[in-house]
Amino acid sequence: MSAARFYVTTPIPEPALTLLRAAGSVEVPDELPDAARLREVCVSGDYDVVVSQLRDTFDADLLAAAKIRGISNYAVGFNNVDIGAATANSILVGNTPGVLTDATADVAMLLIMATARRAVEADTFVRAGRFTGWEPNLLLGQDVSGRTLGLAGFGRIARATAKRALAFGMQVLFCPRPPGDRPVPDAELGEFAGLVTHTDWDTLVTTSDYLSLHVPLTAQTRHLVDAGVLAAMKPSAILINTARGPVVDEAALVAALKSGEIAGAGLDVYEDEPALAPGLAELSNTVLLPHLGSATVSVRAEMARLCAENAVAMAQNRIPPHPVNPEAWNS
């Protein structure tokens, strides 16, 4: 078997590059490849596998022309790849599921707490030298304990967020995958049976004090939270998004935050990332993080290992350990 050839669009942590180099040659560009360069890489025939990021887009036209065996996404999500087109062209796709569950749930809880208690505003207030002593009405925030957390989606990250919220004394509602009207038996809830309550999407929206999004980006979930949903939320409600940016209509969110239609938002992802919707950065009732959900040293290293193992397997014409589309394998 000839040595594998890998193109890594962005440097990723070890042990990824060591594992890839042990299996073949590795090219990491000095600059991020634009769409034209990514297409050139894929159609040249010079590479077996592209190790990609969410910002690298593989559409149907590109995949139809591509001469690669696989795409190893350094992410659990894969909405940057047209999976149907990849499968039709026998291009395997791998991702890195599971390892970032707790880290992302930690960030969801961080956003809940920081937005509710106005932590960023308070930090800025102190650093600006404006703190002159305790005052009864200084930077009053919202309660978290005893309030209702609504989870849109109830997969691994949502369940980990629920566990943290329950420890804070929150009441937890969930909608499995909006509209989520399928009954969820206790057997599927496992350790959460009797502790969380299934409800429909409309009820989740109207009753949650904190609405936290945990759904993948699909045609059905794009702009799941739009102007209508924001209008239906409580005026005191806070929106949390650690899922994917386009799940929220960001322009509508800015309008709702400016008008007081909802009280605040804590975001780790954005609709046109890394760009923000006009006006979002100027709003004091937001906490804005730069896509830090999986950003711990150990998690990013484990993601890198899984990503490299997927890439090596695909280059060697094997189904990767974490395939998105195993049916694309050409044995």
In total, the number of strands is 12
Per CATH, the superfamily of the largest domain is NAD(P)-binding Rossmann-like Domain
Helicity level, as a percent range? 25-40%
> Main beta sheet, described?
7 strands, parallel
Instruction: Round the mean pLDDT to the nearest integer and report it.
Output: 95
Strand order of the largest sheet: 8-7-6-9-10-11-12
Structural domains: how many: 2
Calculate the terminal CA-CA distance, rounded to whole Å.
15 Å
- Our Rg estimate from Cα atoms comes to 22 Å
Uncertain segments are: none
- SSE string, helix = H, strand = E? EHEHEHEHEHHEHEHEHEHEHEEH
Query: Which second-level CATH architecture of the largest domain applies?
Result: 3-Layer(aba) Sandwich
Q: Which shape, going by the Cα principal axes?
A: globular
Just give the CATH class of the largest domain. Alpha Beta
Description:
This protein is of the alpha/beta class and 331 residues long. It folds into two domains: 129 residues, Rossmann fold, CATH 3.40.50.720; 166 residues, Rossmann fold, CATH 3.40.50.720. The protein is built from twelve helices and twelve strands. Strands 8-7-6-9-10-11-12 form a seven-stranded parallel beta sheet, sandwiched between helices. Helix 1 packs parallel to helix 12 and helix 5 packs across helix 7. The mean pLDDT is 95. InterPro entries: D-isomer_2-hydroxyacid_DH, D-isomer_2_OHA_DH_cat_dom, D-isomer_DH_CS, D-isomer_DH_NAD-bd, NAD(P)-bd_dom_sf. This is Glyoxylate reductase. One of its GO terms (molecular function) is glyoxylate reductase (NADH) activity. It holds the Pfam family 2-Hacid_dh_C.
